[in-house]
Specification:
Helix content: 55-70%
Order of helices and strands: HHH
Structural class: mainly alpha
Largest sheet: none
Number of strands: 0
Shape: elongated
Distance between the termini: 47 Å
Length: about 80
C-alpha cells in the first residue's frame, strides 16, 4: 500500500487546499479525509471481492457447514 505521501492525487488535493483562502467557498476545498476514506473503501471492497481462499480455509468452511447442518438436524 502506498503511503499518503506517495499518492499523487492526495498530494494534489493537499496542495490545492493550501491555496484555499478563508473568503473562498467551502466547496472549493477538498475534504481530504472523505477522499481517503473513499479510496480505502474501494480498495478494501476490491480486495474482498477478489480474495482467494486457501485449501485450508475451504476445508475449515466445509467443516463449519457440516457442523451447522448436524446441529440443525438435531434441533
Amino acid at each position: 500500500m502506498r503511503s499518503k505521501k506517495d499518492d499523487p492525487d492526495d498530494q494534489r488535493r493537499i496542495n490545492e487546499n493550501k491555496k484555499w483562502k478563508a473568503g473562498d467557498p467551502e466547496e472549493d476545498a477538498w475534504d481530504i479525509d472523505k477522499e481517503r476514506d473513499a479510496v480505502r473503501y474501494k480498495r478494501e471492497s476490491l480486495e474482498s471481492i477478489f480474495k482467494l481462499q486457501s485449501d485450508e480455509e475451504i476445508e475449515i468452511l466445509k467443516k463449519m457447514k457440516e457442523r451447522i447442518d448436524l446441529w440443525e438436524d438435531h434441533a
